[in-house]
Amino acid sequence: MRTVCFHGVESTGKSVLAAKLAAELGCPWVPEYGREYCEEHGTDLTMADLLAIAEGEARSIERAKASAPDLLLLDTDQLMTAAWAQMLFGEVPPALMEYPKADLYLHFAPDVPWVDDGTRFFGTPESRAEFDRAARAALTDAGVVPIEIAGDWEEREAEVRAALSQLCAAP
């Protein structure tokens, strides 16, 4: 089984595209646990909350792996939680970097309009750019080289489809 993580800052189309492609491909996907957590507990987060989100994400991924014979899409993982830790608290606990990594990371650029959905934080161009740097740093620190996803919604979808096709065609 191969895992693909959609990685990047808020409001870049990860959740919508992961759900759409999972339905089309008939594979499971793991929604962003942090969104569920914030909807239940609020958005006044502490580092303990981020660590709880990381654990909840890990449990969700493990459950989904049981039903994913070939491909599993992740709407985020603990490396993105590490970027949140950097943005909110200026540090990344080592535990966030120790979780298993996906087989492929698709990094979504913040080059589409930001939409506030009630759980999002960083909507200005400056804060989005800073958050994107933190997200990229988390990947770099983990030794991950992602495929870059950018452009309008149609371009993003085409780039993700191409990356998934290439992954699925590889032995």
Explain this structure to me?
- It is built from 7 helices and 5 strands.
- Helix content is 53%, strand content 12%.
- The model has no long low-confidence stretch (mean pLDDT 92).
- A 5-stranded parallel β-sheet has the order 2-3-1-4-5.
- The protein has helices at residues 14-25, 33-41, 47-65, 78-89, 94-97, 125-141, 153-169, and strands at residues 2-8, 29-30, 71-74, 104-108, 147-149.
- The protein starts with a strand and ends with a helix.
- The longest helix is centred in the N-terminal third of the chain and has 19 residues, at 47-65.
- The protein has a single domain, classed as P-loop containing nucleotide triphosphate hydrolases (Rossmann fold, 3-Layer(aba) Sandwich), CATH 3.40.50.300.
- It is α/β, with parallel strands linked by helices and 171 residues long.
- Strand 4 (104-108), helix 6 (125-141) and strand 5 (147-149) form a beta-alpha-beta unit.
- Helix 3 (47-65) runs antiparallel to helix 4 and helix 4 packs across helix 6.
